[in-house]
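Quick question, first post here. What does this chain look like in 3D?
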Amino acid sequence: MKMPHTRSTRLITALLAVLSVGASMDSAQAAVFKDAQLESLHEAGKFAELEQQAQTRLKANPADAEASAALVLGQSLADPANAQRLEAAAQQARLCIQQHPNVAVCHLAAAQNLSLQMLNMGMAKAMRSVGSLKDAWIRTLELEPTSVTARVQLAKLYITLPGMMGGSTAKAMELEAAVRNSQPETARIIRVHIAAEAKKWGEMETELLALKGAKDSALLEEVRDATMELALVYLKDGKDLAKARSLYEFLQREQPSRAAGFYGAARVQAALGQLDEAIRLFERARTLAGADDYPIDHRLGDALLAKGDKAQAKAVYERFIANKRAKPANVETVRKSLAKLG
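> Answer (accepted):
Ran it through. Tokens below.
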């Protein structure tokens, strides 16, 4: 049976997006790395520095499992559009698993690398890799049952995959039920994704807002991504700009050091024609953590162009294109805008 193209496209573009890995390794707050230095670099999104630190540690101790996994993530996330680096990271992931088959972080890093590779594959090849990705998350969860990232990402796969590829909402609900008492926030974020798949936007919002005050880094990432997803539903085509703004303001309050809420709020202001305020918010978002996760300079350039500032818009567009972490689809659009500017 051939899967409909629209379903395949949604699977690859929506579900397998770049993830900033976080994991809860025990009942207390924790992260993907037990080593404080590696985790600090990872949490700050300093992936080039993470790669360098991992290489230094592996030279001193080739058997360092966390350094091996850190090298995978650093190579993968510092320049995710670079196929050669992603393949080098994939080789490192295989080595990590070969040397440390029972260490969860090696499997987690391998899953993240494969997710990024799938985004750069042709559709048919990417779909053939879904089973391997699912197996990687299953193995990670087997080795570390309290991992927020592994449980949530596996649940997302089950929700999105059609039954013929091993997916089902029932399987996602089993993952949710297993931690409903022990990890209630993890269970709630899974319910957020189940509601999103069913397009039950009100239910999704209720579950999201109930996660106010979450502290775990993996949960914060999930809340951020899901809130941005829901807000975009309301932002698109001006469907409900007030609702979108409310969600972005929620993110600003809950995660004031992150770019997401300010970037989203800037998009609302741009949609309302409030270009000066939009530009101010875009500029602020550029200075905050996670700025590279969003096409801020793309949108900032658009706002400047709408104001008639062609010279500044051109400079911002060129800065966006030079960003190695910029998504190809946005880069293509910006190149077209630049071509029109001459």
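The two ends are 48 Å apart (CA to CA).
The domain at 240-342 is CATH 1.25.40.10 (Serine Threonine Protein Phosphatase 5, Tetratricopeptide repeat).
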